[in-house]
Write a structure and sequence with these properties.
Elements lengths: L1 H18 L6 H6 L6 H12 L3 H13 L4 H29 L4 H9 L1 H34 L3 H19 L1 H26 L5 H4 L13 E2 L2 E2 L2 H5 L2 H4 L1 H8 L4 H18 L2 H12 L9 H8 L3 H39 L5 H25 L3 H25 L5 H21 L10 H20 L1
Antiparallel strand pairs: 1-2
GO cellular component, one term: plasma membrane
Subcellular location: Membrane
Protein name: Pantothenate permease
Length: 455
Amino acid sequence: MTLALLLAYAAALIFIGWWSSRRATAADFFVAGRRLSPALLAGTLIAANIGAGSTVGAAGLGYRDGIAAWWWVGSAGLGSMVLALVVGPRIWRIAADQDHRTLGDYLKSRFGDDVRALMAVLLWCGSLAILSAQLIALAGLLETVAGVPRTWGCVIGGVVATLYFAAGGLLSSAAVNAVQAIVLVAGLALALPAAWPSSGLHAALPPSVPSDYWHPFSGGSSGVMYLALLGPSFIVSPGLLQKVYGARDARAVRIGVLVNAGVLLAFAAIPPLLGMLARVSHPSLPNHELALPMLLRDDLPPWLGGLALAALFSAEVSTADAVLFMLSTSLARDLYAGHLRPAATQAEQLRVVRVAAVVSGTIGVAIAIWAGSIVRTMGLFYSVLSAGLFVPVVAGLFARRAGRVQALAAMIAGAVTTAVLQIATVGAGIAGVAPVVWGLLASATALGVALLVRR
């Protein structure tokens, strides 16, 4: 019964995507015709930002580490505030004036083709990790709650996201995401009071919880350090910036992204608390990332468990379509039209972007079937993306003397340093500092040295 309801919900999402994009053009696919209102922009950003890591992953961190897991989603909210007030309106004006449709278009106009090509490579390598993370979470959810084999869970999520996104790109995604955002926030928000013990959470927790379980800034491996890992990604993420391009004006950017930031900051406490509640009734789970699926299956009334399950399904699928958006539009615009066939027409780009969406979805499903941890997989994506793109994008907006050589030096130094330290230290970093922080420092240093040499 649960699986049938989920499949019906998935079919409804596909229908909404198809209906809203029956006459989609290339401009609709890439930037929704630049007519997203503040409400639609906020909805599509919320749906993109609340995914596997923000729900299943954050609840698992709450189960293991306590309330400090707030920083996993809270860091995204703080980064979104910077996007709303500083970066977003400025880059939207440039995109509207010069008809930019991807972040690669901006990097090309500011630094040249080489920088755009390198960004596209980083994007493809990193984004496939986050796409697989969404499908891993969805597969684990369907396996725990509905008994669906893990492989088929990955396939179901990949097919649903690919079908409604490929219908119309950002135009169809924005309509579907508005429904998904309402379902996912309402479903998990209602689950919290229903699972809350009458004696209070603090009293009901088993004595085996760590001593820092209620420390707001640091508990276990979670805490304020997530701000360095995640915050920059939500300022310069190519997928989020391309959604910002779709706003109808700079005011819509400020309001829509700020609403998204406010929702993220408020929502950030819900998954960790649900994970902590799961520790009350399931104190010995072999895998902490099972906390939320087990809570939905065993500790909620059937109707509410079904709604929360639909919320999680929405979360995983909506973020998967956001990643497909980044991957397919970057391939069609930055690689195909930018390098392989500069004279490509709008119709050709539209065909390529749809084929790229299908190929990306297929590769993401294959990686999800093979890969493991949700949080580890997403951490890899955020680290590489932040270290490789944050400094060049911000320097392009605010440092006039930064050029092609400086941007390339910053991107290469940041990405290579982060990747090497991630592999060499298994993510632990050096001197207690995460690899992504060293990567950002290396990127900023490379930019500064290149500017001095030029001068």
